[in-house]
Every structure is written in C-alpha cells, then in structure tokens.
Specification:
mainly alpha, MetI-like fold
Length: 283
C-alpha cells in the first residue's frame, strides 16, 4: 500500500502532463477580464495575471519539469555508466585517473556551473547560436541545454555506484564462465554486468529525477530556466512570488505550484526507496 500510493500519484501527474493541456478548454487562452480570479468552479486553481487557467499551466509545467528531470537523469546515467564501467573493469591506472577526476569535479560548485552555462547560452544571439539553428527554436534549445547541463554535472555519484558494483561483479562465477567461453570485455560488460546493475542504478535514478526537477525549478525561479509563455513548476513559482504582497495576497499562484512540486518530489523519493529495497537476482 505504501508503494502503491506514490506510484499512483506519479501516474496521475504523468497523465495530467500528457493529456491535461491537450483536453483543457483553457489551453493557450488569455482572458484579461479573468485576471487573478480565485479558485472557482470555472477555474479550479484560479488564474494568473493574463487570465490563464492555473490548472492548465500546472499541467504544462509538469510536462516540462518531468521531461527535464527524466532526460537529465538519462544523461547523468549514461555518463556514470560509461565512466563507472571503465573504472571498475579496467582497474589500475585507469581506475585511479577516473576516480581522481571524479574527486576533483566534486569540489566544483555545480549550481554556478549550470548558471554560467545558461548565461553564456543566452548571451549568444539566436541567429548565431548553433544549438538554436540545429533544433529550430530557442525554446527547444533552452530545454535541451537545461537537461544536458544538469545531467553532465550530476554523473559523479552514479559513476561511483557503478564502479563499486562492477568491482564486486567482475570476479563472480558467471563472469568467469563468460570469459572461459571466449567472450570479450565489451560483450561481458554489455551482456552480463550492465543487466546486473539495473537494481541499484534504477533505484538511484529514481532519486536523481527529483534532484534534477528541483535544480531546474531553482534555475527557472531565478529567471535562468524556462521562460514565459512556456511554463515549468519553477517558473510558475517565480511568477507567483513576484506578485506576493501584503495588499493583494494571491496565495493560489504560489500554493498550488509549490504543492505540485513538493508532492511529486516526495512521491519520487518514496518510489525510489521502494526500488532500493528490491534485490534482483544476479544472472
């Protein structure tokens, strides 16, 4: 039951992200007369400055936040698997050099690296930006930059986890049997080691997704992530925070994006904890 609730909530969030903007009657609709409406029967979560339905914008923001979280995690795992397998399998000076690199990179302030990369990207005019030219729009290029940068600076811990698992597996009986049958290193790693890394890697991946989403929300909150008219939960929080004042307290613009982000992060962490307790057999 404890595992079913987080999984059900995550399925609900994913369904809202995929289907919500498509079927909502308020998608991409601006209505100046409906500006700053409180939650009501017509607008369940209220409206923003431009009269846009907040529930629809939250569904759009879920799509962006989840995509950045999942894609950034995939990039980090790809780097981590490559470095961890190389270090654990080869050992010796290769292992020492790669682990010293990891130790050195741990000392870098990764948030500032992400901020610097985003600022440098925006300093290049769109007509001269190769990433914008390749993807066809500045919005797509910004999203690709976000999850690429976040993934590229979060691969260190996965690399350590993979290295430790490979070190414990490479002397196992099934690996020795594969060697005796004439399998090469690449085949052994791909066919025998990587499948047995699925348990710990997937468990850590489920923990990395909320980290990526939180970092994307932070960058969007300070104005360096997703920008209007696109929306992420971080950018919606930033918009709501800008409008907070003691005279006109538009609480729904902050409460609902914060609740969506917090509950999703908690559900992902609970789901990751459930995965961590599952111990698949080796093969």
């Amino acid at each position: 039951m404890r595992r079913a609730l987080p999984a059900a909530f995550l399925v609900l969030v994913a369904a809202a992200a995929v289907a919500g903007p498509r079927f909502s009657p308020w998608t991409a609709r601006h209505d100046a007369a409906a500006s700053f409406q409180r939650p009501s029967a017509s607008h369940w979560l209220g409206t923003d400055l431009l009269g846009r339905d907040l529930a629809t914008r939250l569904a759009e923001g879920a799509r962006v936040s989840l995509m950045v979280g999942l894609a950034g995690t995939a990039v980090a795992l790809a780097f981590g698997l490559l470095v961890g397998c190389a270090a654990g399998w080869k050992g010796g000076w290769v292992d020492a050099a790669l682990m010293r690199l990891v130790d050195t990179l741990y000392g870098l302030p990764f948030v500032f690296v992400a901020i610097l990369a985003t600022v440098m990207f925006r300093s290049i005019p769109p007509d001269r930006n190769p990433l914008v030219r390749l993807l066809g729009s500045e919005e797509r290029a910004q999203l690709v930059l976000l999850f690429s940068v976040l993934g590229a600076i979060q691969w260190l811990t996965p690399a350590r986890i993979v290295r430790a698992e490979v070190l414990s597996l490479k002397s196992a009986g099934f690996v020795e049997a594969a060697r005796a049958l004439g399998s090469g290193p690449l085949r052994i790693v791909a066919r025998h080691l990587v499948p047995n890394l699925a348990g710990p890697v997937l468990a850590y991946a489920a923990l990395m997704v909320p980290v990526m989403m939180l970092e994307e929300s932070f960058l969007s909150f300070i104005g360096l992530g997703v920008r209007d008219p696109s929306a992420s939960w971080g950018s919606l929080l930033a918009e709501g925070a800008e409008l907070l004042n003691p005279v006109q307290f538009r609480w729904w613009l902050v409460l609902f994006p914060a609740a969506a982000l917090s509950l999703t992060l908690l559900a992902l962490q609970a789901f990751a904890e459930g995965l961590r307790k599952v111990k698949p057999g080796r093969r």
